[in-house]
Design goal:
The chain is built from three helices and eleven strands. The chain is mostly beta strands and 157 residues long. The strands form two sheets. It has an eight-stranded mixed beta sheet, covered by helices on one side. Strands 1-2-5 form a three-stranded antiparallel beta sheet.
C-alpha cells in the first residue's frame, strides 16, 4: 500500500519558517539515523534522521519559480548531491542525489501534530543507524548499526 493510500493524503514537510514546502507520495526507500561526518558538519548535530524517496515521489508544494526561494549547495567531495536551502530561514530542506535519482529529507522537517509529534511516525520511523563508525555518541535503542548504508555495508552491531 502506498503512503498516499495509507494516509489518504501525501506526507508533507517544510523548512523552519514554512516558506519552502514539499509533499511525499510513498514510503521512504530508506529511513535511518545518519552519523556521517557530512551530516554532522552540515547540521552541527551528532546525527540526523534522514529519509530517502525515489524522485517520482517528491514534489515541491510552494509557488514557482522554486529557484527564487532556494539556495543550492554541493559538497565538493560529493558533487552528485545537491542540498536545497531556504533563502529566508537558511534551513536545509532537501537534497537530490543524481547517482540514485532520490530526494532526501530530514525527519525533523516533517509535518507535526498539535502535540509536536511527527505525523504518521509509524510509516517513517528509522530502521537503523548508518555510518555509525563516525558516531559522536553511543545509542542503545535496539536498531542495527551499520558501517555505511543498512544492508549494503558491514553491520557493526
Amino acid at each position: 500500500m502506498s503512503l498516499s493510500q495509507a494516509l489518504n493524503a501525501p506526507l508533507r514537510g517544510s523548512c523552519f519558517c514554512g516558506t519552502i514546502s514539499y509533499a511525499l507520495s510513498a514510503k521512504p526507500v530508506l529511513s535511518a539515523y545518519c552519523h556521517c561526518t557530512n551530516c554532522q558538519r552540515l547540521t552541527g548535530c551528532p546525527f540526523v534522521h534522514t529519509l530517502h524517496f525515489a524522485a517520482v515521489h517528491f514534489s515541491w508544494t510552494f509557488p514557482e519559480p522554486h529557484d527564487a526561494q532556494l539556495d543550492f549547495y554541493r559538497i565538493p567531495n560529493k558533487p552528485h548531491k545537491t542540498r536545497c536551502r531556504c533563502k529566508t530561514c537558511g534551513a536545509t530542506v532537501a537534497s537530490y542525489n543524481t547517482d540514485t535519482n532520490c530526494w532526501s529529507v530530514w525527519g525533523a522537517h516533517l509535518q507535526r501534530d498539535i502535540n509536536g509529534r511527527i505525523e504518521d511516525w509509524d510509516l517513517v520511523q528509522p530502521t537503523a543507524h548508518i555510518f555509525y563508525a563516525t558516531s559522536m555518541l553511543n545509542i542503545n535503542d535496539g536498531l542495527g548499526k551499520w558501517e555505511g548504508y543498512e544492508n549494503r555495508s558491514a553491520r557493526l552491531s
